[in-house]
Specification:
Blueprint (H helix, E strand, L loop, with lengths): L1 E5 H6 L3 H8 L12 E5 H6 L5
Antiparallel strand pairs: 1-2
Protein name: XkdX family protein
Length: 51
């Protein structure tokens, strides 16, 4: 299963810093609120999106 989350949703759920680390993104760079990230089921569990 794949889980999609946008930058805006990640910010709202307070997991944006985990997404940055997970995908190797630059913390100082600006990202679109609608930019989507695809997580595996394992990654989604790791950041607390699913149980």
């Amino acid at each position: 299963m794949k889980i999609m989350i946008t930058q805006q949703e990640a910010m709202q759920r307070k997991i944006w810093s985990k997404i940055i680390d997970m995908f190797g993104l630059e913390p100082d760079k600006e990202y679109w609120e609608t930019e989507q990230f695809i997580l595996t089921e394992e990654q989604a569990r790791e950041v607390g999106l699913i149980r």
